[in-house]
Amino acid sequence: MTYNKPYYWTKTYIGYKDILDWRWKERKTERLVFLEGHVLPYNSGNPHLSYTLQDPKDYDLIFHSESPPEIFLKRYDVLPNNTPAPLVNAKVKAILEELCFDDVQFFPAMVKQANAKMELFENHDYWVVNICKQYDDLNWEKSELQYDYNMPEGHQVDGYKCICFNELRGQSIPYLARLKNNLGYIVIHPDLVKRFKKEKIKGVKFIKNNDEGDYWR
């Protein structure tokens, strides 16, 4: 039977030293800015989320690598990193621009050495992807929201206890989106998965949603 639901996008890496470190406490950009599922800059109306109003030209996107460029350039099209946003090379950027231009924004990033013992380098071959859409076409008979009853009334939804997507239907849906009510999860259209697999994109894998819902606690 043909799989006809969104996939989950998840990163892959060979070793922990390959995970790039975005030292957010040293940066002028808030670490959660790319987690909103909106075009940036974005006025949420929430004073606690004022960082979404920062002018993108002022983003401070410096990543530190324990591997030299000849290693991560060879191993990854999507660089593993400690932010909630994909970090992609020109090959992936071109695919996303072709298939889902309205779903994403790109911001140039710099990768440099992790410590003073390494040879100095600056690499500018990767971009942070801001995913601008949210997705929530769920089978609610099999999905279940998770609540935090310590939160104020009206703000108690804390994600999903389990989730099951509906089969994709004829309406226009994003090729790439964040999962509403659990924005740390990225969902991807099967057509985009096929293109990534055809192009042998390295550093990302895709997980199917089963009929009983996927559980995480």
Sequence-ordered SSE layout with sheet pairings:
Blueprint lengths: L6 E5 L50 E4 L3 H7 L11 E3 H10 L4 E10 L8 E10 L2 E2 L8 E4 L9 E7 L12 E4 L6 E3 L1 H9 L5 E5 L5 E2 L2
Parallel strand pairs: 2-4, 6-9
Antiparallel strand pairs: 1-10, 1-11, 3-5, 4-5, 7-8, 8-12, 9-10
Give keywords.
single chain; 217 residues; alpha+beta; five-stranded mixed sheet; four-stranded mixed sheet; 3 helices
Protein architecture, described:
With 217 residues, this protein is an alpha+beta fold. Helix content is 12%, strand content 27%. It has helices at 69-75, 90-99, 190-198, and strands at 7-11, 62-65, 87-89, 104-113, 122-131, 134-135, 144-147, 157-163, 176-179, 186-188, 204-208, 214-215. The strands form 3 sheets. The protein has a 5-stranded mixed β-sheet with strand order 6-9-10-1-11. The protein has a 4-stranded mixed β-sheet with strand order 2-4-5-3, with helices on one face. A 3-stranded antiparallel β-sheet has the order 7-8-12, with no helix packed on it. The longest helix has 10 residues, at 90-99.
Order of helices and strands: EEHEHEEEEEEEHEE
Low-confidence stretches: none
Q: Main β-sheet: number of strands, strand sense, barrel status?
A: 5 strands, mixed
Which word captures the global form? globular
Number of domains: 2
Average of per-residue pLDDT values: 91
Separation, N- and C-terminal Cα atoms: 29 Å
Q: Indicate the proportion of strand residues.
A: 25-35%
The structural class is: alpha+beta
Helix content: 10-25%
Specify the number of helices. Answer: 3
* Rg (C-alpha, Å): 18 Å
Q: Give a count of the beta strands, DSSP E runs of length 2 or more.
A: 12
